[in-house]
Design goal:
The chain is mainly β and 145 residues long. Helices cover 0% and strands 54% of the residues.
């Protein structure tokens, strides 16, 4: 939007200054050794409205040399200071979790990296997710720049 669009009035506070759509290339990596993956699908799409970024990621890998815990990098924008939490829906396929756990995700303030965690369904402390040599992640979410 070059000239901007006004939402709810013509005052400066109501002017939408940014609307952008694009693609990005997300990557799975490990925290001990980043490693290299063989991807069959590696896509990312985003829409930015103001400071809010909505994104969709599909990552499918058939081999990976990483070690440690799993991370996803390559979000299109760095999260804002104090605003790092991603609200996301995650579909993990062929990714090993401890029995009775579900996958959750967040990104630390000021980064473009998502940390994958597993949380017990009955409550309790979350734990990291070990990198898998093969798997699939489908993630849809929103965060603030």
């Amino acid at each position: 939007l070059s000239s901007g669009v006004y939402l709810g009035g013509t005052g400066a506070a109501n002017k939408l200054r940014v609307y952008e759509e694009g693609v990005f290339t997300p990557t799975v990596y490990g925290t001990t050794t980043a490693g290299v993956g063989t991807y069959t699908t590696q896509t990312g799409h985003y829409t930015k409205v103001g400071r809010a970024i909505s994104f969709q990621i599909v990552l499918t890998w058939s081999a990976h040399t990483a070690t440690g815990t799993m991370r996803v990098s390559g979000l299109p924008f760095v999260s804002g200071a104090g605003l790092g939490n991603v609200v996301a829906s995650i579909y993990p396929n062929n990714v090993a979790l401890t029995a009775g756990n579900i996958m959750t995700i967040y990104n630390a303030s000021g980064t473009s990296v998502m940390v994958l965690l597993q949380a017990p369904t009955g409550g309790g402390a979350v734990a990291t997710v070990p990198i898998d040599t093969a798997g699939q992640l489908v993630i849809s979410g929103t965060y603030m720049e």
